[in-house]
Amino acid sequence: QVQLLESVGGSVQTGGSLRLACTASGDTILSACVAWFRQAPGKERAGVSRLFVGGGTAYADSVEGRFTISQDSAKNAVYLQMDSLRPDDTAVYYCAADPRDYSCAFFAAARYPYWGQGTQVTVSS
User: What is the pLDDT of residues 59-89, one digit of tens each?
Assistant: First the structure.
């Protein structure tokens, strides 16, 4: 079993920053593909960023240059640093993981078997 937990999100003004954390039970996250997704009201869940613990990161075009995904092995955590936030970043953000995917090449939500419960991020203009 893999249990994921996102940190509390928050509310910021345009141009502000937030950092989200995703932690997993045990050391499973260290050998997994970990991704951040987001879902705005009335819209599909979309990939934001993903990280392969063994090395490699990827970003959606809409966040590249503004968001940074990173890991802290000592804390068994993956982070999403969000800078230069815009109102269209407003969404519920989810952490997802696939311990078996060592390619970590997909944003498709259906491919990820483990999910956190989601955390709200709100950006006001």
Answer: 999 999 999 999 988 888 999 999 999 999 9
The tokens describing 56, both together, are 């490699």
Binned at pLDDT 50, 70 and 90, residue 31 comes out as low
Euclidean distance between CA atoms 10 and 17, whole angstroms: 10
Contacts with 76 (C-beta within 8 Å, 6 or more apart), sequence order: 23, 24, 26, 27, 29, 30
Distance of CA 56 to the CA centre of its chain: 14
pLDDT, tens digit (0-9, with 9 covering 90-100), for 36-49: 999 999 999 999 99
Half-sphere exposure for 70 (CA within 13 Å, toward CB): 9
Cβ count near 116 (within 10 Å): 21
Among residues 122, 125, 49, 47, the alpha carbon closest in space to that of 89 is found at: 122
**Half-sphere exposure (Cβ direction) of 118: Cα atoms closer than 13 Å:** 11
Instruction: Decide: helix, strand or coil at residue 111.
Output: helix
